[in-house]
Description:
Blueprint: H1 13-25, E1 44-49, E2 60-65, E3 73-78, H2 92-95, H3 106-112, E4 116-120, H4 129-148, E5 154-160, H5 162-173, E6 180-184, H6 191-208, H7 228-242, H8 244-254, H9 263-287, H10 307-313, H11 322-326, E7 338-345, H12 352-363, E8 370-378, H13 385-398
Amino acid sequence: MNTNPESPRWWSKGFRILLLLSILFVTFPMTAVAEEPPPWPEGCTVGSLPSGDLDYPEDQIILTCLPDLWSGYLVVYAHGYVAPQAELALPVEELGLGTLPNGQSIIEMLMSMGFAFATTSYHKNGWAVEQAEEDILDLINYFEMDIAGKSASKILLAGASEGGLVTTMMIEKHPEVFDGGLAMCGPVAGAPYQMEYVGDFRVVFDYFFPNIFDFGATNVPEDAYLDWDSVYAPAIRSAIKNNHAKRFQLMTVTKAPWVGWDASTAVTTAQTLLRYSIVGTNDLIALSGGELPYNNIGRKYVGSWNDSKLNKKVERVAGDAAYLYEYYKTTGDLERPLVTLHTLLDGAVPFRHEIYYFDRVANKGRLPNLTVLPIAGYGHCAFKPYEILGAFALLFLQTGLENIEAIQPYIETLPEPMK
């Protein structure tokens, strides 16, 4: 497949659908932004649904949008990780709400094409895979019963980063609800592996740079996140950029992606992973019943200039990851089409997730339902617009949506799927 897309029928109906969807889903902020949401298009309603959760009792905030001439297609969006310290909010930045060249907002254009749209804040921030499952199913039921008054003919789910894991989980567990999914830059091999990656990076970083944090991986102060921007992020940047040997050893031992000749990519990877540790550790401890769901007892770290010393000195944690196996270690049992899109050098969620998940799906005999699209380059969710367009075009084709002939050529812009 070539990588230099032409521009067939720029404002054809099918292309406009894919364009707005690509803009809609390409961004992934780590935290919610406290701001007044812009006015939603006519036909959109902001509301709330009760959680029924005694531990996290806040209502989920929902957005539902129904066009006058509904095609029967419903697109549901599963948002990415939001710091647990933030207030619940609709994913305004992730939705990319704004003005397109023709003057319409992307949701207005989506509705003009006959698509309905729905999304949710979930009723919990932080690690919210468990809550997302309940909330998305409740949202769809509410949309069909109270907004549309009838069932959707096709339901597609898309999500980025943590939302990519949510998407994969929902496609695996609820094939009776969803017709297909697009998981972008997600930890599709599951939560246990992602926590292992983040946890290993934290303890190995502390070994090489012991003066950045005055607390360990399991005893993060509740208010530590308040010092992230002013204290920790600058200190991490300075440490990584100014210690070439330690930087190289850290990235080698942890296998964390970066571009070897560009120290700024090592800084970005380190800051991203360590920020998860600072803002999310106590949330994970609470979810897991009192201990961090991470265990590196007996793990041998290799790749430093003195592995013996590293393994003697590195912090050891004896946690139980049972909760993360439940929410969620993927099974690979795909009954519906799933397209995944992932950069090869993703520092936040490594591409290795895709390799492990591919093998898992193969072992279940479900490879015809999985398309893994490896995207060259560094960055988390760092996709070109035409790559998103092609991924959606492929998903539309695989799920039997009609009238997409005009945008099918964009499939040719995609890399060869992983085999």
